[in-house]
Design brief:
By secondary structure, the chain is α/β, with parallel strands linked by helices. About 40% of the residues lie in helices and about 25% in strands. The strands form two sheets. Strands 3-2-1-4-5-10-9 form a seven-stranded mixed sheet, with helices on both faces. It has a three-stranded antiparallel sheet with strand order 6-7-8. The longest helix has about 35 residues.
Length: about 240
């Protein structure tokens, strides 16, 4: 056999092993994380959260997909706003915490005091970029600090999945870290073939995006209803409210 064929087979096999290793460490990392951080979530600027919530209500959206629900902070928020929620996460521990948090709301006097009952939440163990959702069935998607943890290829596939499952004029809120330039890799970072970074210390992938890269990706695939940037504790963050057109 030609040596190039053998090299190609070895390359495919190594890529498969790497994907399995990334997936294994990703799940292990987040399971371990949620064992310590019982209720955790990156804070989204209130203006954009309220705008997204108001937009969903104006459009009579009934269900929101929380893609990467973590320990349930925003699943709980949207449930109390009256939306049915599909909570998806790769971590069984995170999903268990989300279930506990949501179900506990039914027993809290707070919900009775404000005359609100939490809406129905469906829990799904799943891993982005793949969504166990039929084509054009999603009315709204919520994504908070998730996309930067995907490899470049996974991120591209995930954007395609958003477009596949969203209805026409369906909306999506995306909140992600970003910067004006990429940070240089160091001894704790392994650069993967597609340019993604594998953070050895944390056991997760991080494809660092500049603001311009992320903005272009969103404008190429969606109608941007609003875009905002925030500097907080020395870190840059960007929030989009988007529509599939």
């Amino acid at each position: 056999m030609p040596s190039t064929f053998i090299e190609g087979i070895y390359g495919l096999w190594n890529n498969l092993l790497l994907k399995k290793e990334i997936r294994r460490k990703r799940i292990k990392t987040w399971d371990s994380f949620y064992m310590v951080n019982l209720v955790w979530g990156r804070r989204i600027p209130q203006f954009y959260l309220e705008r997204f919530t108001s937009l969903c209500k104006q459009r009579k959206i009934e269900q929101i997909i929380d893609a990467g629900c973590g320990s349930g902070l925003y699943t709980t928020y949207f449930s109390l706003q009256g939306f049915k929620i599909v909570a998806i996460d790769v971590s069984r521990t995170g999903l268990a915490l989300t279930k506990h948090l949501v179900r506990s709301l039914h027993f809290l006097k707070l919900t009775k005091a404000i005359n609100v009952e939490p809406s129905i939440v469906n829990f799904i163990k799943g891993e982005l970029p793949h969504f166990p959702v039929a084509d054009h069935k999603a009315q709204a998607i919520f994504v908070n600090y998730i996309l930067h943890q995907l490899t470049h290829k996974e991120l591209t596939a995930c954007i395609g999945e958003f477009r596949r499952i969203l209805q026409n004029e369906g909306v999506i809120l995306i909140h992600e870290p970003c910067g004006d330039k990429l940070l240089p890799p160091n001894e704790t970072v392994e650069v993967l073939e597609d340019g993604s970074w594998f953070l050895k210390k944390h056991g997760v992938v991080n494809w660092n995006l500049t603001r311009d890269q992320l903005s272009k990706m969103m404008t190429d695939n969606f109608k941007v209803l609003s875009e905002g940037r925030l500097e907080e504790n020395g870190k840059s963050k960007i929030t989009f409210v988007l529509e599939k057109s």
